[in-house]
Automatic annotation (TrEMBL):
Positions of the UniProt region annotated as Disordered: 110-145
Basic and acidic residues composition bias: residue spans: 121-145
Protein name: Cytoplasmic protein
């Protein structure tokens, strides 16, 4: 019987960077936690399974009431993962709270959610940043701004949780 090849961490100069080369459609990081990298900010938030399937259905920010319910549910998931000692789950919940803040803030600043004028040039796709495009003018939407504030408060609560900080440090020392 042939053995299934186990996925391996990417060999990169900075092993702390999120590894976008793994096949996240089939990879269950609860079964292979050694492959998880925290990365920066929200890296991998829409890829990492089974956490994406567990958290994403609760992620909403259209109104302050919806944002409050959503951020409280995601923060409760953070606490549930914490109770299970599941650092990846905690980190993914933290990323969804951060993404709730950043996306609500973007819609607060730009009614359509589009930050830059025009499409990304073909030779710049897949790179971060504005790529020389002009940023569209801002128009403050107080409803989305309040949604952003709600998510930000829960994001900071998760980010500053002493157990999360300790587990994150230990994770990075162990796995890079």
């Amino acid at each position: 019987m042939p053995t299934r090849k186990q996925p391996q961490p990417a060999e990169t100069a900075d092993n702390r960077a999120f590894n976008y080369d793994l096949n996240y459609q089939t990879l269950n990081l609860r079964e292979h936690p050694e492959l998880y990298r925290v990365g920066k900010g929200e890296m991998g938030v829409l890829l990492v399974q089974p956490y994406k399937s567990e958290i994403l259905p609760h992620w909403r920010f259209k109104t302050p009431d919806i944002a409050r319910e959503s951020s409280e549910k995601i923060y409760q998931l953070f606490l549930d993962y914490k109770a299970k000692g599941d650092f990846i789950g905690m980190d993914m919940a933290r990323k969804y709270l951060q993404m709730g803040y950043t996306r609500a803030r973007r819609y607060a600043n730009h009614r359509t959610g589009q930050k830059y004028d025009g499409p990304v040039p073909d030779d710049k796709k897949g790179q971060s940043g504005a790529h020389g495009r002009d940023q569209l003018p801002r128009d403050e939407d107080p409803v989305k701004a309040e949604s952003a504030r709600i998510f930000y408060a829960k994001y900071v609560q998760a980010r500053e949780d002493p157990d999360y900080k300790q587990l994150r440090k230990a994770w990075q020392e162990m796995y890079g």
